[in-house]
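Form 7-S
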Amino acid sequence: MISANWPWNLHDELRFDRFMELALHDPGQGYYARRIRGVGKGGDFTTTPMLTPALGRAIADWATGASKESACRDLIELGPGEGLLAATVLKHLPWWRRPRLHLVERSAPLREKQADLLGTKVRWHDSVAAALDACGGRACLYSNEFADAFPVRCFRRDDDGWSELFVGPAGSWRCCEALPDSSVFEIPHPPGQIVEVAESYRDYLHQWLPLWQAGRMLTIDYGAEAAALYHRRPRGSLRAYFMQQRLEGPEVFERPGRQDLTADVNFTDLQRWVAPPVTTARLVSQREFMRSHATPADARLQDAAGAGEAFRVLEQVR
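Output:
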């Protein structure tokens, strides 16, 4: 199952989420450390802000209203990438009511790229907790294609229960008696169905949620609610991207550290993991979000980018 080019010493099998964590985030060999330039039209994948400024303008319009309704003067972006989205948001925030923009970024190479683009217009933080502390706990937060980069656990529905994927020289599915907290197990899946649970993202949310006192949060990503997430997808949603190619099956385990790994976001879980005290204001398609916060021309641009219906926008309130 696993490539001979695996860059870490592997003696025992790893639970899949640990494999994914190393493949993506290892400081020396992980994808986000080695392949910073592997993004865009000439790289492994392209994000919406690279194709059109329409999404940034829509987020700026949302942030203006959200900061007014919540009386928050600070705006926090999670996972800002190269800073293109932040630059567009900043450009279109009204000068008479412009919130302070904070970026949560641990990667030194990405911080350098963001600084080259944004200068001194933003503040950087290593964690959401540090950003919230600087904001006094009151802030509006947003992210785009961020939740999907968190490692997932993989499970398979068997005739007599569930098994979990481990990665090693041979690879295996092991019987799993204790399941993580996820709405996906409440759906009557047929035997053989593979599902993913982003337990690491749940843990990430719980780390800083107690520090968030008030505001709104916007999560933009590809995915669906639990009931629709695996419709006609018996092998699950896990996939890799390498040189603009979408790869599935055994190829997911090839080139660790050299290709992106991702899975669709379960928006039902994103809501249940923070409630209470966080409530859902709306869950809409990105196309609908664009139409409510941007000009018709922007909406057409977003549809042209191919993400209007594939992406969901979750707005939550505290």
